Structure formats: C-alpha cells, structure tokens
Amino acid sequence: MPQEPKKRHSRARQGKRRAAIRLAVAKTVLCPNCKAPILAHKICKNCGYYKGKMVLNLAKKTKKTDEELSEAKSRKAGTKEDK
Question: Cα–Cα–Cα angle for 36, 58, 67, nearest 5°?
C-alpha cells in the first residue's frame, strides 16, 4: 500500500516549500565585439561573433530599388503567361 501522510501540512509549510521552486533570471554578458547583452556561450544575434570570430554573416540587407522590383514583377508576369 502507498504511504500516506500522518498529519496535514500547514499552509505556511506548503508555502515555504513552494518558495524555493522559482524561475531564475537568465544571466547575460556583454558581447566583446558590439557590447550588446547576450547569453553566455551563444552567438551574438546583433553582430554574429562568437569568441572573437565571425560565425554568422549578418550583412545588412539593402532595400531593393524600384528598377529591381519592376524587373522581378515582369519576370513573375512572364512566367504566368507562359503557362
């Protein structure tokens, strides 16, 4: 048979037990390259560096010019007409 508690635990005792069960705030460090706060042992999402080396190429995307957009639309329209 399973064991049963002999006496009821009070609300204070229950609260003391539950007080120890809590979430911890994530510890952050500063990126040595761009000084942005990051999680330890992770790649910086701001600059893409890890341990002083570039791991991700996070080049800024340039806005497409009106000419490039019109060319892309004409290519899409051309493929639809061929079908």
Answer: 130
Report yes or no on 31 lying in a domain: yes
Q: Closest Cα partner for 29 from 18, 44, 19, 17? A: 44
Question: pLDDT tens for residues 22-80?
Answer: 899 999 999 999 999 999 999 999 999 998 888 888 776 666 667 777 777 777 777 65
Whole-angstrom distance, CA of residue 57 vs CA of residue 50: 12
Question: How many domains is the chain built from?
Answer: 1
Q: Do 43 and 49 contact (CB within 8 A), yes or no? A: yes
Distances (CA, A) of 45 to 26, 30, 68: 16, 12, 29
Task: Give the predicted TM-score (pTM) of the model.
Answer: 0.46
CA distance 32 to 55: 14
